[in-house]
Amino acid sequence: MDWIYPALLAAFLAGLLTYCDLDTQFDPPPSLNWGPWWKLTLAWWFFVLANAALALVLYYALSQAGVIPETNPWLKALGVGLGYSAAIRLKFTTLPINGKDTPIGAEVVYEGLKNLIHKRINRIIREWRMEKTRELAQSDVPTLRQQSKALVISDTLMTEDERKEANKWIDAVASAQDMEDADRRLLLATFILTGQRRSRS
Hints:
Blueprint: H1 4-25, H2 34-65, H3 73-82, H4 84-87, E1 91-97, E2 100-105, H5 106-136, H6 141-154, H7 160-175, H8 181-194
Antiparallel strand pairs: 1-2
């Protein structure tokens, strides 16, 4: 059982990297109703824990098979945990499909699961954003302009150049005469919720 603690380290690292990847790709809503919150939390942590479990199994399998050269088990755990995403994409063999040699490996199953989870998470967040955008867009343009500028001022990650560009975009949208009022409110509401500056076209 000497392998268990290093394997847990590999699992922890794989889970941590998975969590960071999800947090980078998706921006979880600050508040959700119980139903959507439960579904989002379940999908999110299922994927994190599934990756952690796969890394643990991978560490054990590689150790037992002697694939990893005999070395410090903690170093092996670091290697498996940090290199897990690359290892899971290894191709085991190729099969002729429609006249072409198609690589087959764990990646096929993994990417299918990943896409399923990502779509589910994205749908929950998208529905929340649509609802909140509709609510925000009920405000008039001057109010949304003020809120947008407050968002820019309070964002400590923005550089001065980025603030200038964001304020320039906000003013352009708020004063655009070639856009319907509803479209201007929609763009500003979307910016407040996501920080994304959508094209005016």
